[in-house]
Amino acid sequence: MATRTTVSLACSLGLAGVLLAGCHSPGGAGYTGASQTYLSSIWAPKTVTVFDTRTNEPVFQMEVPVGQQLSIQFIEDDGDDPVYTPDRMRYQLWEAGTTTGNLESSMTVPPANARKVVVDVRQGPEYPASDGTAVGRVDRPEDRPGWWSPDGGTAPADGAAMRNYGG
């Protein structure tokens, strides 16, 4: 007969397993069946490629945009061909820092003994794409107003233009 402590421990471990099943963080959750997460940052932008080692051909490749992360998980015996692609890879691209969620995309892949995951770090720095919400940005010299130059000039008198350009 199981003791109360043994039953409580078993229930706690079972609950932890259920909760971790949807958790994604760089390096994975550290248990069998966990997803691996690859974070792409300004100084370490990542490209993730899954190769079929029998042919040395890539079966999946994604340049993970800066500020996002790619999580992948391999599921054995869930593919569509018992020899060439017996496993399934589930994956999802999301904003950096996302720790829970469903891996909604999938594809069939070679078995574990015939695939490898290669993570390349692209040359940095690489910056995230602009979302278009910044107003009055002056990152490029041709975007600067005429009065904001080494030669100087007369700024608008109302001050609104100064606020738009960070003045």
Task: Walk me through the structure.
The strands form two sheets. This protein has a four-stranded antiparallel beta sheet with strand order 1-4-5-6, with no helix packed on it. The longest helix has 17 residues, at 4-20. The chain has helices spanning 4-20, 160-164; strands spanning 36-39, 46-52, 57-63, 68-75, 87-95, 105-109, 115-121. It has two helices and seven strands; from the N terminus they run αβββββββα. It has 167 residues and is an alpha+beta fold. The chain has one domain (21-151). Residues 4-20 have low confidence and may be disordered.
Total helical segments:
2
So what's the overall shape?
elongated
Quickly give the structural class.
Answer: alpha+beta
Number of DSSP-assigned strands: 7
Low-confidence stretches: 4-20
Cα-based radius of gyration, to the nearest Å? 25 Å
Question: How would a crystallographer describe the biggest sheet?
Answer: 4 strands, antiparallel
- What's the domain count? 1
- In round numbers, the mean pLDDT is 80
